[in-house]
Amino acid sequence: MRKVQGRSKGTLGRRAVTGARACAVGFMVVGSWSLYAAMTGASASAATLGATATITDPTTNLPLASGGSQTQFTVDLPASAACSGDTATDGYHVFSYLLPESTAVTSDTFVGGFPSEGLGLFDSTGYYGSADTAVTTGQIVDIPTNFEFYYLTTHGQTAATLDGGSSETWQAGLACANSSGAVSDYWVTQVTFTGNSGDPGGFVWSAVPGVGTTTTTTTGASTSTSTSTSTTLGGGTTTTLAGGTTTTLAGGTTTTLAGGTTTTSAGGTTTTLAGGTTTTGPATGASGSTDSGNSGSSSGSTTPTTASATSLPFTGGQITRDLALGLLCIGFGFILLGFSVKVRRDIAPKVFVR
Prior knowledge:
4 helices
């Protein structure tokens, strides 16, 4: 006589095996996608727009505030400064630029290996551009240490071109461009050229790190015909109302209302109301004084954070989360897969024929 024992238990067991395997596959798919996202984010740098470049003495590695036409210098960028992609895989290259102060850096293009407008930085070998990045990371490496503004005069420029006949301010720095020549990242410093007949090139220069394009926003007050004037440099965000005068440097965020005068440097955040005068000091932790309102004052020490670059999609925290989630899901998938094998083995002897 044929007799089957444990049919009900065997059916439930097989269902458990099928369900466990389906869940295991689902967890592994999710885990694999999270690992892919983490690796993609780790291999591509965040876009950097308007971060600080510093003209530096190549011998002492200290910032150079000024120099003559034949003073040699290099350009120092923040640690691990990188393009949004690398040269080997993504076709990104590094270029130098020298643009009038009122020109947006992102309007420049580098098709053909040279800037579409403005000038650039030169060393003894010529224009610095189309330089390769580090593989995978896109990091900017091997920046020349013998730049000279004098070389501009040996490549068709004159002192009058730079100093405008007396004194003129430019933006200088390094930029990354993608395979189409469009600017994806840039680091900026402000350079002022001044005519000097005693210099071999006919001019001298001074530099301020991290100061970029100047823009002016005018907002009329609803109860007054007066307007406001704002100068925002190096990526700062400024709102100025009702006649306030505001200068924001290197990423500071400032709101000035009703005639206030505000200066915010290097990432400080300041709010001034009703005619107060406020100064938020640089990132070195210098003391600043604050007047808020029409009267009264207070003083205190401020330590704004260093101005940071604009970042796009991936950050270290997100990459870490994606990596952890991916490993967790894949690990749990393997656990479920092992469980399904064990259940299958457990129920196999339950079904037999006598």
